[in-house]
Write a structure and sequence with these properties.
Elements (H helix, E strand, L loop, with lengths): L5 H19 L21 H4 L7 H22 L1 H39 L3 H11 L4 H13 L4 H19 L7 H14 L4 E2 L8 E2 H17 L9 H18 L8
Antiparallel strand pairs: 1-2
Helix pairs in contact: 1-3, 3-4, 3-8, 4-5, 4-7, 4-8, 4-10, 5-6, 8-9, 8-10, 9-10
């Protein structure tokens, strides 16, 4: 049975209440999600509010379950105010860092599309797809072959540009939600302060110490971010950003610590 501490309990309540309201309100409280810089829907307050939004029951369950597992010991160690500060800084920091990554990715995509618009060759279309839209490679492959065979076909060029613009707008205006960035900061803090605590991770048949589990999870997220599979809409680099912010905070707060559990 989970022994919930006050701040963990309040965070759970806040997240669940916002999730339930979002399911009932017309428009789904989308203005609270975090949009990319440059999107007409972006607002600075979203760096805070996106942490309380979740995409579905599985999403909120996994994040809140992690909060219940790892949060209480850290709150007992730090106290409620410092624990809440850590949670919020990790979540906001993850959003800010991920926004920087998305800004770079979207600028690269915009540049590659404009190069293709200026010189609409099959090579430049291939560059757009390989650099920015690998998951759509099979869909664009016939278009690239057809453009190679008939390089002056205006209908193919215009169709390709229309598709690229639609995909760019989808990327630009696709929001990010969830407390995963804050949770990954929590994971690092737990593994650092309680490294020898054993955890049961489904479906592994044996318990794993936190000091082994969290680095392995981080490597998995790094691989998932670099080699993102088709249909994978998880913001892996946002998770890693939360982990990084958590690392920096813990190194500052616990630099004189000599005992680990």
């Amino acid at each position: 049975m989970f022994q919930l501490t006050p701040t963990v309990r309040n965070l759970l309540i806040a997240n669940v209440v916002v999730f339930l309201i979002a399911q009932q309100v017309s428009g789904n409280l989308g203005f609270l999600a975090l949009y990319s810089i440059g999107s007409p829907y972006f607002q600075p307050w979203q760096y805070l509010t996106y942490m309380f939004m979740h995409a579905g029951i599985g999403h909120i369950f996994s994040n809140m379950f992690g909060l219940m597992v790892f949060g209480p010991l850290l709150e007992q160690r730090w106290g409620g105010q410092r624990f809440l500060t850590f949670w919020l800084i990790c979540g906001i920091g993850a959003g800010v860092l991920y926004s920087g990554i998305r800004y770079y990715e979207l600028n690269r995509m915009r540049h590659d599309i404009e190069v293709f618009r200026t010189e609409p060759t099959d090579v430049h279309l291939q560059d757009v797809v390989e650099n920015n839209l690998k998951e759509y490679g099979p869909s664009f492959a016939p278009v690239i072959r057809q453009l190679h065979a008939t390089p002056d076909n205006g209908q193919i060029i215009q169709g390709a540009l229309t598709s690229l613009e639609a995909l760019y707008q989808r990327s630009l205006n696709g929001p990010m939600v969830g407390a995963s960035g804050a949770l990954f900061g929590l994971l690092f803090a737990f593994a650092y302060l309680f490294p020898n605590t054993t955890l049961i991770v489904f479906p592994l048949p044996v318990p794993v110490k936190a000091k082994y589990l969290v680095p392995a999870y981080g490597l998995y997220e790094l691989y998932g971010g670099i080699h993102q599979a088709p249909g994978d809409n998880v913001a892996h680099f946002a998770h890693l950003a939360g982990l990084l912010v958590g690392f920096v905070l813990v190194m500052l707060w616990e630099r004189n610590r000599t005992r680990f559990y």
